[in-house]
Amino acid sequence: MNKEEHITEKSIPLFPLGIIVLPGETRFLHIFEQKYKNLFADIENSGGYFGIPFVRSGNIDGTGSFVKLEKVLARYPNGELDISVKGIDIFNTLEYIDEHPERLYPYGDLELLRRNSVKPSKNLLEAFLKYNKLVLKLDLEKLPKPGFYLIANSVGLNDLEKYDLVIRGSEQALNMTMTNHVNLRTLLALQQGSLQEYYCLN
């Protein structure tokens, strides 16, 4: 993931939130502030892409999720919306402008990091197979080979864990971090199973 592979997107609408939407992940949002009603009115018929800068401890971080409006699930009489969005990539913010002069929502220039093309390492695949056998119990023979983000979206990472994952600067670091998350969850599942067996025996 070299810098020359990155893509710059100009004047992208921004919706700061305390969430990370990984590539391939779907999240559900309720839109109620007027400036963000404006944002979705603007993007709904123009491709549907926008950025979600990550809000951490009340501060807007330079890293965030580049997402696409997937579907408007509900429209309310007061203009509020329920929507689903799908993660496309991860970005670094090049320029952040607090307020559009007419439409009020933030916007800015983004550097897309091409994190949607990460390939899972051998160690990560082996760790996920163990986790799947113990916890998920999916029939992987009937499914495509697990990709990096299929794995990441299957193990229940919280948003801080996702943030810690996406700020890793290399494919090797991403794989090592994700492998550690999977191994930890496998260990916790084994410990829980041992406790349940202990209480059953007693």
Features:
Archaeosine Trna-guanine Transglycosylase, Chain: A, domain 4, globular, 6 strands, alpha+beta, six-stranded antiparallel sheet, 2 domains
- Helix % is 25-40%
- Broad CATH class of the largest domain: Mainly Beta
Mean pLDDT: 91
- Bin the strand percentage: 25-35%
Count of β-strands: 6
The CATH H-level superfamily of the largest domain is: LON domain-like
**Tally of contiguous helical segments:** 5
What are the segments in which pLDDT stays under 50 over at least 5 consecutive residues?
A: none
CATH topology of the largest domain: Archaeosine Trna-guanine Transglycosylase, Chain: A, domain 4
Question: What's the domain count?
Answer: 2
Description:
- The protein is α+β, with helices and mostly antiparallel strands.
- 34% of the residues lie in helices and 30% in strands.
- It is built from five helices and six strands.
- Strands 1, 2, 3, 4, 5 and 6 form a six-stranded antiparallel sheet that branches.
- It starts with 6 loop residues before the first strand and ends with a helix.
Summarize the structure.
The protein is of the alpha+beta class and 202 residues long. It is built from five helices and six strands.
Write the layout of secondary structure elements.
Layout: E1 7-13, E2 26-31, H1 34-43, E3 49-56, E4 59-75, E5 81-97, E6 107-112, H2 122-136, H3 148-152, H4 159-166, H5 171-201
Antiparallel strand pairs: 1-6, 2-5, 3-4, 4-5, 5-6
